[in-house]
Write a structure and sequence with these properties.
Blueprint lengths: L3 H19 L7 H19 L5 H18 L5 H7 L2 H7 L5 H28 L1
Length: 126
Amino acid sequence: MIKPRALYFILIITTIIIGILSRHIPGIPLFIGDILWGLMVYFIMRFLFIRKTIKWAIVASLLFSYCIEFSQLYQAPWINNIRHTVLGGLILGETFLWGDMLSYTIGIAIGVWAEKIVGRLNTQSS
């Protein structure tokens, strides 16, 4: 059985790859990338704070994601220069949208759901 931290690392990398690919495949709505971003944030929180509860990870993920989204309302030249780089745009985004927060929430919910399913499978196989 794979160790939890290693599993979260694999999930983070996989989610990043799928998220980047989703931006380059025609026909995939842009909000899918935002859902995957929320999912990635959840997996990162679980990876970094492995001993914390799922509820803690949910709140931390939502707070982080919402703070990033609200930070897009701040439009100073120095941060806009960062946002206009590839990595800066992927991490910080560029334009505030209420719908992005819904997408992040859905992504985090998918992460919680997936974790509960995997947890059930692990207890059944033991």
